[in-house]
Amino acid sequence: MTALSSYTPIATQTLASGTTSVTFNSFSGYTDLVLVIYAKFTSTSANPRIQFNGDASAIYSGTFVYGSTTTSGSYRLSGYSHIYLSGGAESTTIHPVYIVNFQNYANTTAFKSILTKNATAGRQVMPSSGIYRSTNAITSMILYATAGNFDTGSTFTLYGITAA
């Protein structure tokens, strides 16, 4: 017998106006979380980043791999006060989609890891991983735009996953 998982929609936020941040803080009782983001930005140099529990300590890191029809590579960031999600805005008219997986977010004996898949239609694919080096359970998350705002129409949907 194999275990099955089910996705439960927890919350969806669709922006009626631009904002620099989006917060989720009402989730518990799940094994894992998945956040799906359809991001519009007001700046072409914007990237989404995430911070947990209001913790601005320099205990976040990330590893990124990218590829397009013309280039590929990788890089690593460490000692940050947030995790950058992979990819970003290349224009204010091309809107990246992000799928962010949070494994064992409520575990209080291990650091928290996230996996992000990002794709911009016709442009680039950029998976990444991130670590929040804390054993505190994740009880809230704030997403920030690094430049400008998340624009009107951006959608953020958080799902809970429970093992069956």
Q: How does this structure look, described?
A:
By secondary structure, the protein is an all-beta fold. Helix content is 0%, strand content 50%. The chain contains no helices and 13 strands. Strands 1, 3, 5, 6, 8, 9, 10, 11 and 13 form a nine-stranded antiparallel sheet that branches. A four-stranded antiparallel sheet has the order 2-12-4-7, with no helix packed on it. The N and C termini lie close together (11 Å). The model has no long low-confidence stretch (mean pLDDT 88).
The termini sit apart by 11 Å
Biggest sheet character = 9 strands, antiparallel
Shape: globular
Counting H and I runs of at least 4 residues, what is the number of helices? 0
User: Unreliable stretches, pLDDT < 50, 5 or more residues?
Assistant: none
Oligomeric state of the chains?
single chain
Mean pLDDT: 88
Radius of gyration (Å):
15 Å
The amount of beta strand, in percent, is: over 45%
What is the number of E strands?
13
Order of helices and strands: EEEEEEEEEEEEE
Which structural class is indicated by helix and strand composition? mainly beta
Fraction of residues in H or I helices:
under 10%
